[in-house]
Amino acid sequence: MTHWLTLCLLPPGDADEDGDNRISEQEFVNVLSKPQAVTALTSLGVDVEAALDYGKLLFEDGEPLTFGDFMKGILTLRGSNQTTVKDIVDLRKFIAEEFSETDHILREICGFLTGLFLCFLCLGRGVDCNWLWAL
Questions:
Q1: Where are the chain's structural domains?
Q2: Which regions of 42-94 does DSSP assign to beta strands (E)?
Q3: Residue 8 and residue 23: Cα distance in Å, rounded?
Q4: Between the CA of residue 122 and those of 108, 113, 128, what are the distances in Å?
Q5: CATH classification of 2-75, choosing from 2.60.40, 1.10.238, 3.30.310, 2.70.98?
Q6: How far apart are CA 76 and CA 71, in angstroms?
Q7: How far is CA 6 from the centre of its chain?
Q8: Phi/psi at 60 (nearest 5 deg)?
Q9: CA angle 14, 77, 26 (to 5 degrees)
Q10: pLDDT tens digits, residue range 81-133?
């Protein structure tokens, strides 16, 4: 089945535009815009619109994927797949990491805004506020 998918989705030199034997996010989008790829994926029960959205997560780190990783990610989008405990655990881990990163960013922003507010208070009273930025 993988050989057939390779022929349908990735004709030689067609999808791997830069010849690195990996699929970049742009190459992924280009492949999913081809009618033959849409037909092949649809026949496997893959929601192609969801695949386009899912691509943002597949390429979140900006790195291209091997064909195997690409197909593994795409085939998880088949409507016949059932949710497993591992899927829920992976989702929980992903959400926890995203919230942690968001919390970190918000704390940095709050610290900066607090310093800026204190600086404005100092300047309003004619006091030098350069010492604030050394904290």
A1: 2-75, 85-133
A2: none
A3: 15
A4: 21, 14, 7
A5: 1.10.238
A6: 8
A7: 23
A8: -55, -35
A9: 35
A10: 788 899 899 999 999 999 999 999 999 999 999 988 888 888 878 777 776 66
